[in-house]
Write a structure and sequence with these properties.
The termini are far apart. It contains two helices and two strands; from the N terminus they run ααββ. With 119 residues, it is an alpha+beta fold. The longest helix has 24 residues, at 10-33. 35% of the residues lie in helices and 17% in strands. It has helices at residues 10-33, 68-85, and strands spanning 95-104, 107-116. It has a two-stranded antiparallel ribbon. The chain has one domain (3-116).
Length: 119
């Protein structure tokens, strides 16, 4: 039987759920006790300021019907992330930006990578 299409028994599913829960608990404990993790809160200081840059790309790019449900999950996750990031204000001194240029035949692409500094 192909491992991808394998149907799991209830004990196997419960074991998987237990493992997932333990890994999530471990990660939560690590995050709680890690003093290097910074928390930022939504703010209104920039609410009336002009937008400096904006990027718009289509969310629904897959045309194959078999792939639509996978894409729906990705879009849902993006919407959840945007809700949490909306109005988040991070001081500029804590942000670094690296620019990577990629050239592939005729198409050129620039990738911006932002990260929050540790101070």
């Amino acid at each position: 039987m192909n491992r991808e299409n394998e149907i799991y028994t209830r004990p196997q599913a419960l074991l998987f759920l237990a493992k997932v829960s333990l890994f999530q608990l471990k990660r939560a404990a690590e995050n709680f006790f890690n003093s290097e993790i910074k928390t930022f809160h939504p703010g209104n200081n920039l609410k009336d300021k002009p937008t400096v840059a904006e990027s718009k790309t289509p969310l629904w790019t897959e045309s194959e019907p078999e792939e639509q449900w996978l894409l729906a999950g990705k879009v849902h996750n993006l919407r959840l992330a945007v809700k949490r990031l909306n109005n988040l204000e991070i001081p500029l001194r804590l942000i670094s930006c690296k620019i990577y240029a990629h050239k592939k035949e005729e198409n050129a692409m620039v990738e911006l990578f932002y990260e929050v500094k540790k101070d």
